[in-house]
Amino acid sequence: MVQIREAKIEDVNRLAEIHSLALPGDLLPRMGRRFLTGTFYPIVLNSQHAFTLVCTENGSIESFVIFAYHSGELASELKAPKFRILSCLARSFWRYPGVALQVLTFLGGRVSLDEQIGPLEEMAELYSIATHPSAQSRGVGSLLVREGLNRLRAATRGTCLVKTSSDRARQFYLRLGFRDIGKEIRGRRKLFILIYPLT
After folding, report:
1. What is the torsion angle, in degrees rounded to the nearest 10, for the CA atoms of residue 89, residue 73, residue 14 and residue 31?
2. Predicted confidence (pLDDT) per residue in 7-48, tens digit
3. How far is CA 184 from CA 150, 173, 189, in A?
């Protein structure tokens, strides 16, 4: 039986496992399991600026989505433990030499928008979504995103944005009612920026 609920702090190990299996090339999993379980997820799950939903099947978490009510506020919270972040980055540099380049291009991204919509950091954001490989293509991600957008709509007005470098993910968001508004260039990496009106 499929159920959607809010994530709890005791879910961090499963969230980290899913994140690492579903998105192994992303920056966060490359920073290491200790970073995900000891820093990233505890901050997100305790933040008043975000909420995390999980989809469970027969009691096991198969997918999760993180939404920020205010993108800039969550980003500030995640950047606050600088020493822990630098420590995890230093360890991950040895395992994944490309992480340094990922961090530098992340910090130096250039945004090009097709229309003026206001500061992106003041918008709600679909921050991250991942589904265990064994549960992909079964619709659980769509269920989570729709439920998250409904919760955002009840709590705030305005717009929800999402950024993705994957054309497959871009098509997924377009099917859910998001629309393209521009791109962010991070070195050689191009991220599509999409928005969803909450009003």
Report:
1. -10
2. 999 999 999 999 999 998 888 888 888 889 999 999 999 999
3. 27, 17, 8
**DSSP code of 79?**
H
Express each pLDDT in 97-109 by its tens digit: 665 555 544 445 6
What is d(CA 51, CA 154) in angstroms, rounded to the nearest whole number? 13
Tokens in use for 80?
């606050």
- The structure tokens listed for 38 are 């000891």
Cβ within 8 Å of residue 18, ≥6 positions away = 61, 62, 63, 64, 130, 131, 132
Backbone angles phi, psi at 81, to 5 degrees: -80, 70
Residue 109 CB contacts under 8 Å (≥ 6 apart), including other chains? 184, 185, 186, 191
Distance CA 56, CA 126 (A): 19
Distance CA 195, CA 163 (A): 9
